[in-house]
Model the fold of this input.
Amino acid sequence: MKNYMKRDSRFMQQYYALFSDENIMSSHQAYYAALAAFVKRNNRYFRKEVLQNSRLDMLIELDPAVYVNPETTLSLETEKNIVSQREYNKIGGLAMIISSTLWELAAVPTSNDCPKINQYTMYYVLAKQPNGKIHFLEECEQCGYLMDSYGNEYEGLAGIIFPATREEIAIHLSKKGIL
Ligand SMILES: [Zn+2]
Done:
């Protein structure tokens, strides 16, 4: 294990300190902002490839006030008591955990299961393509399967996937007559 990944390194101490900060651990938005700030502040460890592989490059730029889902089921108590106890051998592992936490705070689950395996949650996402086109889709949390609002597999270019905000979801579904 690299020295900087050890629990008592200056880098990891910053991470573990988040969990004992009452101001951070009392609100989903504050927790999101603190994790994103921790990643940004430590870009000598969270290098570009690490950020891209974990989608953190997109997630750390989102405005928590806009993106954090007020109905998220993520438990701050669990984060405080259990996630804070975990240790990581590699920066990539820590990046994945932070990424899935930020995703769970921001993304809104749909009522569908992934059709590939009939389990796992689908989330509402926007796929923003390099040419500016935006597709409103559902994405499986486990395998990344993408489908449109009518349940058809999406086979186009995914581009960059963003969690859809509750406002975007409401607008989209009402346009389609689904809501
Ligand atoms: Zn799936």
Observations:
- Residues 114, 116-117, 120, 140, 142-143, 145 surround zinc ion (CB under 6 Å).
- The longest strand covers residues 119-128.
- The chain has two domains: 3-106, 109-175.
- The chain has nine helices and five strands.
